[in-house]
Amino acid sequence: QSALTQPASVSGSPRQSITISCSGTSSDVGSDNLVSWYQQHPGKAPKLMIYEGSKRPSGVSNRFSGSKSGNTASLTISGLQAEDEADYYCCSYAGSSSLLFGGGTKLTVL
Amino acid sequence: QVQLVQSAAEVKRPGASVKVSCKASGYTFTSNTISWVRQAPGQGLEWMGWISPYNGNTNYAQNLQGRVTMTTDTSTSTAYMELRSLKSDDTAVYYCARESLYCSGGSCSGNYAFDIWGQGTMVTVSS
Predict the structure, then answer these.
(1) For site-directed labelling of B100, which of A17, A98, B59, B115 has its Cα 20 to 30 A away?
(2) Alpha-carbon distance values, B100 to A34, A36, A62 (Å)
(3) Shortest Cα distance from B15 to chain A (angstroms)?
(4) In a 10 Å sphere around its CB, with 0-12 CB exposed, 13-18 middle and 19+ buried, how is residue A103 labelled?
(5) Measured between CB atoms, does B112 come within 8 Å of chain A?
(6) Do B111 and A51 touch (CB under 8 A)?
(7) How far apart are the first and last CA of chain A?
(8) Cross-chain residue pair B117–A51, CB shorter than 8 Å
(9) Measured between alpha carbons, how far is B20 from B96 in angstroms, rounded to an integer?
(10) Among B49, B51, B37, which residue's Cα sits nearest to residue B92?
(11) Given a cut of 80, is residue B71 above it in pLDDT?
């Protein structure tokens, strides 16, 4: 299975909003609402930001939101802050109890 | 607090095996599956497979079938991942991660998201 498709990089200025897309197929992203998103700072373990497509774990800022349309999931970060600069990965259930990650997106806060 | 603590970094020769441990604390070990995820230097995340500490059931990524084995020891709340016939492109940081649970109507099931991660174990394969 190929990785889910994410843009290699996105950028935005403080206080702006950005959206990161995650494209898959009807067998993974489009099959169910089991997409999660992770934030990873350099040298650190990933951190869960969104699960089940649009739900936020306790403690995650409401500036982070998730959505899905067809075979594409999206992560939107509003009110960009310097500490949001990190790599972001989507992950989807891909059938037969397996999972698939996206290739990752590097977010730069200008 | 809930945490996963992994074993120290390893350096291995090509063709050797490596076994990484992941000790859980702060929750009931058998309630959640544990997945292993690896990240080659400068690359993205790759899901390797999962194990249920409750019944020992496993599911491995197709590209690792036959080379990887995941086990648990419920007496010590520890999960293990063994990778055999190591190659240079197995050089990566290996993470264990706990699958979060979705609970409704008194029953809970996994939701294919990872809410707790270990700190990572660097495995270097080099001759």
Answers:
(1) A17
(2) 12, 11, 20
(3) 25
(4) middle
(5) yes
(6) yes
(7) 35
(8) no
(9) 9
(10) B37
(11) yes
User: In order along chain A (110 residues), what is the average pLDDT of each group of 10 residues?
Assistant: 92 97 94 94 98 94 97 97 98 92 97
- Rounded-to-integer distance, Cα B31 and Cα B116, Å: 13
The candidate with the shortest Cα–Cα distance to B54, out of B67, B69, B72, is B72
The phi, psi pair for A83, rounded to 5°, reads -70, -10
In three-state secondary structure terms, A83 is helix
CA of A75 vs chain B CAs: smallest distance (Å): 15
Strand partners, B103: B108
| A19 HSE (CA, 13 A, CB side) | 9
State how far residue B17 is from chain A, nearest Cα, in angstroms.
24
Closest residue in B to A96 (Cα) is: B59
- Please give the angle made by the CA atoms of A62, A67 and A70, to the nearest 5 degrees: 180
Q: What is the DSSP string of A15-74?
A: T--EEEEEE--TTTTTTSS-EEEEEE-TTS--EEEEBTTTB--TTS-TTEEEEEETTEEE
* B44 contacts on A by Cβ (under 8 Å): 3, 89, 101-104
Q: How many CA atoms lie within 13 A of A67 on its CB side?
A: 6
Residue B59: pLDDT band by 50, 70, 90 thresholds? very high
pLDDT of residue A17: 97
